[in-house]
Write a structure and sequence with these properties.
By secondary structure, the protein is α+β, with helices and mostly antiparallel strands. The chain contains 9 helices and 11 strands. It has a single domain, classed as Bira Bifunctional Protein, Domain 2 (BirA Bifunctional Protein, domain 2, 2-Layer Sandwich), CATH 3.30.930. The structure holds adenosine monophosphate and magnesium ion.
Length: about 300
């Protein structure tokens, strides 16, 4: 943790940018009518994240509690109370140690997780674009000294961002399309229409196009990779049950969600955007760890 003077100055510049970006995102969402929820840290159920089978669980009062991997189910329940919600949600994901070198992964990170009752993919993609542009504008306006110090010339993208379907991107750029496209593009862009089996069960399958999801990922240019993932959600109990079964998951693990759905979950759509990745992109940093003062890098020890 003993940093040289130059390292301290660099860290301070990044943290000032981060603070400004968080403030700008919060201001934007409150202006749009969103209510900020305090984050959920432990819960009986959390995001299944099939790519990540290592579960962080604690025992308390005779039960097992998951450390939050995302607030997906809590957001879906919350929009029954307030129609637009967001939370700066700390997530614990025990990513494989080799992911410590991707530049994109921490095992503790914060996502700005939001959800809109009756929201549609189109509306949420527009919201994502406007949110990102607002944050970039604000940082460029208020942190020009910091960006200059970091040697970052931060471009301001124009809306609407380009859109690729998953299939089109895969056909044109092969299986590593996300990384290849991210490296080639000069503006953020969307990937939509993921096939049902590559995503989690809660993203809604298009009733008109079975096998295709009503979801969306925003990808940063310049090789920085994924910014956010989102989707319209499954909210009918029979659909949720079918999707859980299709993925071979144990419905008993999702009893709480199924009961909420039986009582009536509203239709909704939302997304989660990683704060450290946002700051990495804004500041042009080699690794997301540089966006934290006390980073948790997979496989790497920490003194504090
Ligand atoms: P997901 O729903 O899994 O796509 O996560 C939502 C967002 O959180 C992603 O688009 C990233 O911006 C961010 N994120 C996910 N996993 C990590 C990680 N291990 N480290 C840092 N950010 C992450
Ligand atoms: Mg994702």
């Amino acid at each position: 943790m003993l940093l040289s003077r130059t390292e301290r100055e660099k860290k301070a510049a990044v943290l000032r940018v981060e603070s400004e970006a968080i403030g700008a995102a919060r201001e934007f969402l409150v202006r749009e009518g969103f209510v900020e929820l305090l984050p959920v840290i432990v819960a009986p159920l959390t995001d299944p994240l099939r790519h990540n089978t290592n579960r962080a669980v604690i025992e308390a009062y005779g039960s097992h509690w998951h450390l939050t991997r995302s607030m997906i189910f809590h957001k879906q329940a919350a929009v029954a109370v307030c129609d637009k919600v967001f939370s700066f949600s700390p997530n614990i994901r025990l990513e494989p140690p080799e992911w410590g070198k991707t530049g994109r992964h921490l095992w503790e990170f914060v996502q700005l997780d939001l959800e809109v009752r009756d929201g549609t993919r189109k509306e949420l993609m527009e919201l994502g674009e406007r949110l990102l542009i607002h944050v970039l504008e604000r940082v460029r306006e208020r942190c020009s000294t910091e960006l200059g110090f970091l040697g970052r010339n931060l471009p301001l993208p124009a809306r609407p961002f380009p859109v690729f379907t998953y299939r089109e991107a895969e056909e044109r750029f092969g299986p590593d399309f996300e990384i290849r496209l991210s490296a080639e593009m000069e503006t953020p862009f969307w990937i939509i229409d993921f096939p049902v089996d590559v995503r989690e069960f809660y993203d809604r399958e298009d009733p008109e196009r079975p096998g295709i999801l009503l979801d969306y990922d925003l990808i940063y240019p310049e090789g920085y990779g994924e910014a956010l993932s989102g989707g319209e959600r499954e909210y009918l109990p029979e659909r949720i049950r079918e999707r859980i079964a299709r993925q071979g998951l144990d419905p008993a693990q999702y009893q709480g969600l199924l009961e909420l759905a039986e009582d009536g979950l509203p239709p909704s759509a939302g997304f989660g955007i990683g704060i450290e990745r946002l700051v990495r992109y804004i500041c042009g940093l080699p690794h997301v760890a540089e966006a934290r003062l006390f980073p948790r890098v997979p496989g790497k020890p920490s003194m504090i």
